Amino acid sequence: MRRPQLDIQLKTPEQIEKMRAAGLVVAEALRRMREAVAPGVSTADLDGIAEATIREAGGVPSFKGYHGFPASICSSVNEQVVHAIPAPEQVLAEGDLISVDCGAVLDGWHGDAAITVGVGVVDPALLRMAEVAENAMWAGIAAAARGAASGKGRLTDISHAVETAVRKAGRYGIVDGYGGHGIGTEMHQDPHVLNHGRPGKGPRLVPGMALAIEPMITIGSPRTVELADGWTVVTRDGSRAVHVEHTMALLPDGVWVLTAPDGGRARLGDLVTARQPSISPAS
Q1: Which of 17, 31, 166, 256 is in the most buried spot, having the most CB atoms within 10 Å?
Q2: What sign results for the dihedral spanned by CA atoms 80, 241, 82, 19?
């Protein structure tokens, strides 16, 4: 089914289980890449790990070939915000901060998630910024769950929750023009989910909606510029940036964070659906 106006694809619980399978593949790829991050490792090395993990599970990298994108992950280092292309010559160094965005399609359904990882010993202020983004993402997911449960939630309740969490944590820039999105049989679907805004606007939050929630914040100005490669987005002032993301779905009895191995239980508690996956997490 698709909701009118924004063409929002609503999934059945069975289809959401298929998305969970894709989400667990993404989670495993990110776990392996997190473990591999170290000084001397190139972003191309991480890309190889992701592609191998996804294909071993019977999936296909969502990003590879998407509008011509040449890799299986986006690997954004330091001032790079999002969409950076992995390269053998981009070698991680002590103190770097890398955001890795990964997507997989399995049995026709997509999963999409991102993590930010410090390389070796990193400035605590930068690690704190990554923690702030992570907390803001979970605040957005919780807002979606509560809004759907009440029957009164609107899309921008997520945006407002993300922004509020960031603003309360300190003076960070919230990147404009980029954000979360619907996801399902295509990687990017309606609606676009901003990381800022007033609550109570946009389509209602209802069971069957699947969304990728992805804050992107900076330690300096939020203004960005796209490089000549047509993909890499960097901060205009050269300040460090972070990016985190989870794919979540709303069910009649709660939210399911499809790219979190525990479904979101540790962070969301009883907001998480009681529905159990029909598959085991990837090993």
Answers
A1: 256
A2: positive
